[in-house]
Amino acid sequence: MQNKRGQGLSTNAIILIVLGIVILVVLIVGFTVGWGNIAPWISTNNVDTIITQCETACSTQSVYDFCMRKRDLKSDEEKLKDVTCNYLSKQRTQYGINGCAAVSCDNVVFVTAATLDDLSGTCEDEGNEGKTVQALIDNKLESYNC
């Protein structure tokens, strides 16, 4: 009588198991640590997308989308949080976002402030009652309604 052993795993099955484990580990690490830390070579530049969104807001004459809707801009040089098309068209012209003659953002005023307290203090000092004052503080566009 011959010594019979159980059937072993084929080479293809072993390769698929190893690939599955590697993919699972990459997914777990990516979701826990963050994809930007794992794959910095993946482009996170969304300037073209923001330009298109701002042009669309202007062409549809959407005051809210152009003046107040907050967007996160990620370029190769910097990351700006909660910026608006209006802010980018007036304060950050290097990104190529044009102003919009069809939309009036007269109720929004840009100021220079270092903290949120400085921003709230501009209401009385500057005569901005009834307007929204905005300032870029720590790469985030902060807004305060006067």
Notes on the structure:
It is a single chain. This protein has 146 residues and is of the alpha+beta class. It folds into two domains: 9-42; 47-145, no CATH class. Helix content is 43%, strand content 16%. It contains six helices and five strands; from the N terminus they run H-H-H-H-E-E-H-E-H-E-E. It has helices spanning 11-33, 35-38, 47-59, 63-67, 85-91, 116-126, and strands at 71-74, 79-83, 108-110, 132-137, 140-145. The strands form two sheets. The protein has a three-stranded mixed beta sheet. Strand 4 and strand 5 form a beta hairpin. The termini are far apart.
How many independent structural domains?
2
Average residue-wise pLDDT: 83
Helix content range:
40-55%
- Widest sheet: strand ordering: 3-4-5
* Overall geometric form: elongated
Strand content: 15-25%
Gyration radius from CA atoms, angstroms: 26 Å
N-to-C SSE string, H for helix and E for strand: HHHHEEHEHEE
What is the β-strand count?
5
Largest sheet: 3 strands, mixed
Low-confidence stretches: none
Determine the number of helices (DSSP H or I, runs of at least 4 residues).
6
N- to C-terminal distance: 94 Å
Classification by helices and strands: alpha+beta
